[in-house]
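Supplementary notes for students who missed Thursday's class. We covered one full example, reproduced here. Read the sequence, then the structure, then the short commentary at the end.
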Amino acid sequence: MVHNGSKLSFVSDVKSKQGLDPILVELKVAVLKKSIEPFSQGRDGVLRYQGHFSVPDVDGLRELILSETHSSQYSIHPVATKLAHTTPSCI
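Structure (token representation):
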């Protein structure tokens, strides 16, 4: 989902929908009052938690991101990682 040109679309989706999530709206206010530490607001206006996007739970955006990253050709299934660690090196 976040490849090349679609990164801007992703950022704009997150940014525009953060204002629709009541929890994130409260967090943005707390960030502006400097009363909350691990959250910050970048120059682009996107709320972040420890530098990572705070994805709003609006219009199925979280589910869309999770399903796309899970089915991506670049995702690695935990079992595959385990198999890589247990495969004998003499093969």
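Commentary. Residues 68 and 74 are 10 Å apart (CA to CA). Residues 6-86 form one domain. If anything here is unclear, bring it to office hours.
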